[in-house]
Every structure is written in structure tokens, then in C-alpha cells.
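Bumping with the actual sequence this time:
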Amino acid sequence: LVVGEMFEKCGIRGPVPPSINPPKAVTPKDAFDNRGIYYTYERGFRCFYSERDIKLEKAALSAAEKADTILFFGGLSDFEESEGFDREHMRMGENQTSLLDKLIAMGKK
């Protein structure tokens, strides 16, 4: 089971200025699809909001109960990685940490 919106909307900006746009950004989803890797996917959270989405979280946890192995794709959104403002902390959003803690507690691979 693949969980996390970063699987399909992986940030690529980092320190690159917005005026520089790569011709093709390959997400982990693109790589899986190009290689013909079978997977099931649950979004789990919305990467551009730090608030939890209970409906997405419950769907991911329900799918995880049936899975042997879980791959979690999380991280900082392009907005959180932006320059020009001071971050209050270095953590991922509550939407991701809450879900990740629950997935870990399941004891899956």
C-alpha cells in the first residue's frame, strides 16, 4: 500500500527559483507506473494544508489494515519549503505526523 499525497505531488522546488521550471518532473507515481509496479494508493492527507483531513486519514488507515507493507510518502510542501519567511518549527504538518504515527502503531512492514 502506498500512502501519502507526496507520492503523486512530490515537491521539486527546494532552493530553485520559481523562474526555473524543469521540462518534466518525475514523481514517485510516474516512476512506479513507468516500471509497471503494481500498487494500491491512498492519499491520506492533503499536502498543501497542515490540518488533518479525517476522511482521507480514515480511508488510508482502513486500507492499511489489509496491507502487508506500507510505503509512506510525506514531507514539506513547496509552500513550506519557500524562502522569505521564518519557519516556527522543522516538523511535517500535523496532517502527516498524525497519520504516520497511526500507521507505525499498526506494526506493518
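The C-alpha cells above came from a reply further down the thread. Residues 2-105 form one domain.
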